[in-house]
Amino acid sequence: MPNMLDPNLPAFADIQTPALVLDASALQRNITAMAEFAKANGVALRPHAKTHKSTRIAQLQIEAGAVGISCATVAEIEAFAQAGITGLLLTTPVADRPKLARLAAVADQSDISIVVDHADQIHVLHELLDAGSRPLQVLIDIDVGQRRTGIVDTASTLALAQLIDATPGMTFGGIQGFAGHVQHMIDAQERRAGAARVRAMLDEHLHVLAEAGVKAEIVTGSGTGACAYDVTGTFTELQVGSYVFMDSDYGKLEHEGGALPYDPSLFILATVTSVNRAGEFTVDAGVKAMAFNGPVPSLMLGVPEGSTYRFGGDEHGMITMPDGAEAPKLGSRVLLLTTHCDPTVNLHAAYHVVGHNNGVETWPVLARYGA
Amino acid sequence: MPNMLDPNLPAFADIQTPALVLDASALQRNITAMAEFAKANGVALRPHAKTHKSTRIAQLQIEAGAVGISCATVAEIEAFAQAGITGLLLTTPVADRPKLARLAAVADQSDISIVVDHADQIHVLHELLDAGSRPLQVLIDIDVGQRRTGIVDTASTLALAQLIDATPGMTFGGIQGFAGHVQHMIDAQERRAGAARVRAMLDEHLHVLAEAGVKAEIVTGSGTGACAYDVTGTFTELQVGSYVFMDSDYGKLEHEGGALPYDPSLFILATVTSVNRAGEFTVDAGVKAMAFNGPVPSLMLGVPEGSTYRFGGDEHGMITMPDGAEAPKLGSRVLLLTTHCDPTVNLHAAYHVVGHNNGVETWPVLARYGA
């Protein structure tokens, strides 16, 4: 049950808009619900940090039972290792020496796992890893139809697994199949079928490995859209990300028996900055405040019921009201549900987290693209 | 004439990708060309900092003759005033007390100008401005058809100008008409006609002010798309922004007699991270590295001629090659012309600027949305 925040909360008065606002109660409900779902289905959780880029949220996920945290970039795995988060997995193959060197440096200090999709990555890592340190756990990324990264045939998977096992300083940990294209399918039956095809592809790779006597301990992947289907086999763990926030994009997804069982928790606090036109008004949240690759805010608080948002350039959005509705007061605040959560978070330096008694604290967003 | 950078320049080897790369020669050619164009037409330049968020680039624009710099946010005007840039104009009306207070604090220290579109802004500023300090120059923002901010009728413009003039601590400086919707029209004749309609609207407001004996010293607006037409009258100065970079979006614009006379200067340096699929490969630049609200990169260096880019989520892009072309080496670098420059710059913490002799230095991106 969403807890409807008040955009004109006194604690928001001094926040400079546009700003990320996170409802701590809804966040915790989502984390608990996913943890209970995974536990009930006997599958591990390694939630994805590319969604939140926050060690505070990662800690809540681990307290709820997650075995670790997935990261998309070397900068994320560095920041999370630095914060003492354990069970880190880099889900993106890295191919250049500068980044592999940073990764080897993290691996010398912390127990991390990574994925690869090419033998060259193994050769360079072998040169870079400190011979005396703990072995690095290496998984193989499988292309399950997204045509982005990953191995495309079972013979190459086996050859790469054998190369990893034969290389000093590393151990073969299993396989990854991430189906980003399936997570956002709106129709539940289509998504169910898409997820089944992905698992069938992974099963083929697992079969070839097993036939050769190579054990894949971990099978990692899935996401918020398909996790309800992916607990039926193949996967040992789920890399769910967006469930913590439930943005306007995931809010559109159908679920058998209703919407996905998570609450919207992440909003953009914006200020009403122009009220001169009949039937509409302008807020200070545009393309630099909210990711453009998602639907416009499907939930807005502090605006007349039935209003719609349109982007108005870098710094503005325009809100059209139903006939006869009155615009909010100039200078007042509104809350807009995030469009697409991962790239929206990346546009901000911090979350303003509304907790018990409507107190607000600030949590940093880590590992944005640096200098 | 574009200077074609080499994506595998030795000076790029240690840059962590994805990263902003700026060609200093092309940048300087663009700044000089626009300065000469404005000078030849007797119009002032107040280039827009929302494009570059860089005091280094602002200084180059001022050295070339700009009368000042336009800013879109209070954080930008604070950062640029701090750096000693003069002639700052805030082009976005601000409506809430926390931001108006920051603005009043800057105005107490520096000669800045702002725009307003509502009497309430004048009343609050009057309370906040230090009575003893220099007068704040206030312009009126006119809605010239973008339906975003601004005054919509001439009677309100006159009333607001008279209120500004009657309020201690401020002076009426003129009017602004920014037509963001006109700048991106691809067809040159359509853009010419759109720009003429905007100027005609501004002329009506100017006429009513003049009839009442109110002098509008500054008439500010226009942009890279329409500036060729806006030097024919009405405007005393141009708020051009994108000409410094010429992204994939502005590269599509037709110009009478050819393309716009500016060179592409801003690229994303990316690494080839997956090469397992026939006919295509993957780079580490996606939605978190390049703005999604523009065309995909229309110019790519280090890739086979005729290749095309598609977004592949937060951290990836996929590049499809023509039949028979060979993929670049895994781990090698490519350069992608920015999609839409302003929001792309905002995704990065710094520019890697390639200057004489291919030396690279780092310039910070300022005033991204903060905590």
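qc> Chain B touches chain A through 73 residues (CB under 8 Å).
qc> done
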